Amino acid sequence: MKRAFLHPGAPATVEAPHRNQMGAVMSPPDVSTRQGSARVIAVLGALVALGPLTIDMYLPALPRVVSDLGASDALVQLTLTGTLLGLGLGQLAIGPLSDALGRRRPLLAGVAVHVIASALTACAADLAAMGALRILQGLGAAAATVVAMAIVRDLFDGHRAAAAVSRLMLVMGVAPILAPTLGSAVLVVGDWRWVFAVLAVLGIGVIVLAALALPETLPPARRRTLGIRQVLASYRAVVDDPHFRPLVATTALSFAAMFAFVAGSSFVLQGQYGMDEQQFSAIFGSCAVVMVASSQVNPVLLRHHRPERIAAAGLAAVLVAGVVLITLQLLQVGGVLGFLLPVAVMLAGGWLVIPNTTAAALSRHGEAAGTAAAVIGAAQFTCGALTAPAVGTLGGDGLATAVVMSAAVALAAVALTRALLPLPALTTGELS
After folding, report:
1. pTM here?
2. pLDDT tens, 319-330?
3. Which of 385, 418, 5, 386 is nearest to 250 (CA)?
């Protein structure tokens, strides 16, 4: 299979069959068929869902946490920021480890940390303990996210890589939308602590799935030396790539725009527009439908258009919707639909940007896919972490959410313009 997606890389190979923890022989994953590819992506989808579920399942419980722990809204919101920082910093550590030790061991160890942190968070006595444990949760969940993205780079090439990332981005986009619905269901039968108990159980499920169904995809011959100097050199090589940086900035800022909506939604929809927990969850479910549709369209578009063109078109639509959203919020017209309809366009357009720019950035460093995925993930979650306090600082209402979303998108447009100018165009042969 010819490797070409914006930048050539090393051939994708996997090591010989080995045995899983149950003693069964595990053959390298076969992604040459649609069925085999779908099976691998389904497993990877379960991995990447862990991070968004960790972030957002407790959103409907925020008022209960405030009441139970006697903290302010702003302080409780910082636990959300802490989780994002943990996800970002965790990826920076785990990415190089996965390039040196293989994908499976860092994955299983990281998710085990997530399980322990989730169980302890369910027992947290005060906000300080909860905040520290939420950071640890994020660090553990980071293993699932970064390893999944690195495995995509191990196994897929060309437009198939972009399509695979699109499927995973679908999960990463829909999971935070559906997570509050799941959280609300948990709150029907228990308090906010039950949410973290459920997260611990989900983490155990991810460990079992990965141990039994996910073979190693990075053979020893392709692993890198593990050491401080080597790790720093690997990061330097990735970050010094002038094509890689603007692609990462584009995907990270687009992710931040989406997370601004996630961070502000409970305060806008429940506080400003008076929705209850169930109505709030239903709205999130509707947003998920929009994102599912957009993510399903992207692989179809990739058959006829270059990834960077799709990303540019999606970002243009998001920019226009952002201007409309700010205008409606300033004029205070349109009500809840005047807020949700432009947001829906922004979410749909963003999911034409993020998978394509992510795949393009990953494709440039196949020899260090874990490190490259770590940089991308860290940038995404760090930018996302900054949006939560930004929305709160500006007032936490619809206008604040609109301004932060639109500002992130505007910066993403600048970055994408910079990314497109020097990149070589794909040929028809490279897309095959």
Report:
1. 0.70
2. 999 999 999 999
3. 418
